[in-house]
Amino acid sequence: MMPPEPARPRRSAAVAVIGGLTVCGAVLGAVWAAIAPSIHTVTALTKAGDRVDAFLGKESDNLFVAAAMLLGLLAMLAIVSAVLVWQWQAHRGPVLVTALWLGQVTAGAAAAGVGAVLVHWRYGTPDHQGVPLSPQNRVHYFTEAPPVFLGHGPLQIAVTLLLPAALAALVYALMAVGTARDDLGGWPAEHYGGRSL
Question: Which of 71-80, 93-102, 122-131 has the lowest mean pLDDT?
Fold first, then answer.
């Protein structure tokens, strides 16, 4: 039996996947901004009169934890979105998997952008050098915004954006490998020996 022709063209389906993932990424960025741990630092004046900046306790761990949380949220989105896109049987194939990984990259960019804007709006930018320290007031505490990336280099940013996209493509590929049909059940169905499988 031949599957019915899809109501939406393949290009429109690809645009819907990319747009939907971008919106989901922006929502994940807002969620991340609400749950990511802030970083507590201190600027102090030594007895010699030098300024010293330091993290309070193990707060430096939050530099990694916050970025790893965003990566984890994006990985969750990658797995769920790959399974949901696979359910759109009529459009299964290279166009939709390309839209999936492109959408995952735009979702990562949207999550990082929205998350960064919201945490900087919430915590501001600390001015460690502008704090008036004196022998009577030697210590000033700061609460800083968590980072969205594991580092500021292009490689760390690329990994944050491409790792969830690769995960989504891998999940989609594993489902494709498990399918008995060469056409993945998509439209138009392939015919074997004069009949549709």
Answer: 122-131
Identify whether the C-beta of residue 67 lies closer than 8 Å to the C-beta of residue 149.
yes
The pTM for the full model equals 0.83
Q: Which of 98, 97, 101, 94 is nearest to 77 (CA)?
A: 101
> Can the peptide bond before residue 147 be classed as cis, meaning omega within 30 degrees of 0?
no
Task: Report the percent of the chain where pLDDT is more than 70.
Answer: 88
Q: What digits encode the pLDDT tens for the residues 33-45?
A: 999 999 998 889 8
* pLDDT value at 113 more than 90: yes
Cα(159)–Cα(150) distance, integer angstroms: 9
Q: Domain residue spans in the chain?
A: 15-37+60-124+147-178
In our burial notation (b when 16+ CB lie closer than 10 A, e otherwise), range 132-157 reads: eeeeeeeebebebbbbbbbeeeeeeb
